[in-house]
Protein 1
Amino acid sequence: MGLTLLALGIAGYLVTSQTDLIGGRTHNIYPLGSIGLVVLGALIAVGGVMMSQAGAKSASQLKCDKCGMTFGSKAALDQHSKDKHGMKAA
Ligand SMILES: [Zn+2]
């Protein structure tokens, strides 16, 4: 997450640079600006994937029927059921 924020900061710097360039010379398009947009777009895509993964993880959280504990994966729930409740993993 820290790396993502760092990368976002760099992207923000690039976008700011592009904005300054556009403000100074509205008729020229600089490669640096395009690169900044590409980097920003890639970061947004990566961030979106990370956020969707985090959302999917919390959405797919499994709850133990016996004691109500929640687990991030079926394997963890199965292991818990076996250890705490003596149930065989599926
Ligand atoms: Zn349990």
Protein 2
Amino acid sequence: MVDFSNITKNSIEEAIKEFDSLGEDSFYSLYGFFKEKKYSLLYNNKTYPSKAILGIAYGFENNTKPLSPNDFSGGMSGKNTAASVLDRLGFEIIELGKPQKGASRGNLERNIFGEIPGVKVGQLFKDRKELSEHRVHTPTMAGISGSQDIGAYSIVLSGGYEDDIDELDYILYTGHGGQDNPGGKQVKDQEFLRGNKALTLNIQQNLPVRVIRGHQVEYGPQNGYRYDGLYYVKNYQKTKGKSGYYVFRFELVSSQAYENIVNTIENTFKDEYEVPERVSSTSDKIKRNQSIVKKVKELHNFTCQVCGEFFQGVGDPICIAAHIKPLGRMHNGPDVIENLLCLCPNHHDLFDRFGFFIDENLNIMQLNQELPKNPSKKLITNKKHMINPEFLNYHKTQYLIVN
Ligand SMILES: [Zn+2]
């Protein structure tokens, strides 16, 4: 059995740094761990895979090879399991489906990510109070439950926003704020605060959000509210809504297949509504053209167009073909090489979250600070790789809206 008794906080923090500098995907592929399902380590408001972090920290601590997933167990049961070792060292562990530690007394047992034990998908609740009592959605007024430091636990669709789009397994959900009264008219721009900010953390940390439909919306139940399962937040944008004011919109994709949702909840649909026809596939199912992915990486010799760095992985070099105008239905970017950049994991992450933009002269720009490791401050280019300025401009517009 692996002995974790000498593991220090320091080596855990070192492993966290390693995760941050490689980026999630490269970290998993380099060390052979899998995405964490149940136990996450919460550190500086960001979640990390508890088992993988401990395995890599073990290598740092003992100056040896990192552990592999088969060398030890994850979870909380037993003294030598990953989450319990981290817990003992004083790190905060989030268990999906369990109350969060550190919640204030009144909120204890209330703040939970993921499924609520004992609550089934499709279950009906007579009103907001009952939803709250069952901890499915604790606030009795607000549409988004969560904290801008941790993420969103749940949302309620109750028809309060004219810009919502609902296709059952795919939802464009309007953030909160800017109305003259709850459910009323949009009278000003929404702000990047509270629930809106919380939902963006779900993207970064891949945390699920519970979705509840009210009787007010098309696919809601006849009466009251219905719990419709877990969704993942895939994208967000700030865009002019129907009223002419800026609203935040979040793209939510169900964790279940469309057919499963329909089968589970169709008996609660209102009489006047037919089961909707499948509209189109979700952003998850977009197939990327692998030949242009390969081509753009080769044209740049697998180095980052922002920092010029080359990272050798175990097998292949680590670099990412990143879309400038994002794919998916929200942004609708095309999968063509003129819409791709070759980036290292860090700059890919930053670019995707609109952490910097590239101007018409290919200067790498941030409004408030300079990008590190970028002495020339210009995108590294290759004559054979044309980039369409229209896509750069789209990305810049999104950057300016969010920042
Ligand atoms: Zn880079």
Protein 3
Amino acid sequence: MKNFDIPIIYRSPLISAIKNQRRQQDKMKKDFAPTLLNLGELHIYLARHFGFCYGVENAIEISFRTIDDNPGRRIFLLSEMIHNPQVNADLQSRGVRFLQDTQGRQLLPFEELTAEDIVIIPAFGTTLEIEQKLQDIGIQTEKYNTTCPFVEKVWNRSAQIARKDYTIIVHGKPGHEETRATFSHAAAETPTVVVKDMAEARELAEYIRGHKDPAGFYTRFNGQYSTGFDVQRDLVRIGVVNQTTMLASDTQAIADYLKQTMIELYGLTEATVEKHFADTRDTLCYATLDNQSAVTGLLDIPADLAIVVGGYNSSNTSHLVELCEEKMPTYFISSEEKILSPQEILHYDFHTKREKQQTGWLSERRPVRILISSGASCPDALVEAVIRKIAGYYDAGEAVESLVESFGG
Ligand code: SF4
């Protein structure tokens, strides 16, 4: 995979050495077992895959290069570059301003923009409506577009099935930038509706089967269907695509469920199912699949606790937390600063959307076993900082130094 030129502050000599060694030993990416960092009384197990993905590194490279190449020009980002507070703050400190927040609320009016300005489109992509608005002002959108190719792949897949007259069901978080962008692209081609989870998929299936009053659909799915959507006409042929960072097992379960609904309703077989259900496998991105599989491999270790590092509004990170939580106490932290002491930690509960303080988070057991992973928008430097902070509680600072050498760094 391409090597990107990203600021050195996001890299970690330790994590790079580990990743390089694992890559050399497992070129086909078949081994999802974690890497053990033996630090005496502290055993850290690092997930096989975690951290910056292709799309994030690509977006960071383009953004910082744009800043370097355009001194004196006003540079805006449509919204957060990626869901990582450090990266966003670094861009803002270099003078970049955000036009919208992550929910699409306007922070700066588009009317302030001129044709001389640069507007960077983030890795999630954007809606056709916003792209048009920028082009109307005279802003070149293509040159500074960091939309991830794996998001574009979903749009292409949507367009393919739209051409065959399928309605598109998007499995995603309705307010998430990427889902709003995918919805916009899909809705330009064919009727489209967003479902956020299995509960909504089941409700949608009730309308597909005709078990519910069609009028109720428009209230229940308010804001989640395309203009002119006709619940009786537009749920006869469907295909499912997804936000690239959803939980793989959820997306699969929703697609399987809706497919089965069509099979039962229309008396189909595997050979005839395409009459009512399009095959759209593979719209999760490679990083989501790798990171989730690596967490599954990580959870084979009987550990005391898990730490997941990442931005609190990061979808892919919260799914890693969800997987870990099922097995053991899990702490979702945005940086090492959230580890207050060996007794106290501040961590994010994504169910209540609040940070909370936990006492007695580190087990007394020796060696204590800690699993660590991070989201696709989290710099490796943050993971190293977390490792170093915990190692400090076990007088293992020097042992961390020698680890870099032992992994060939
Ligand atoms: S998580 Fe996947 S789709 Fe999103 S930016 Fe990374 S590689 Fe692209």
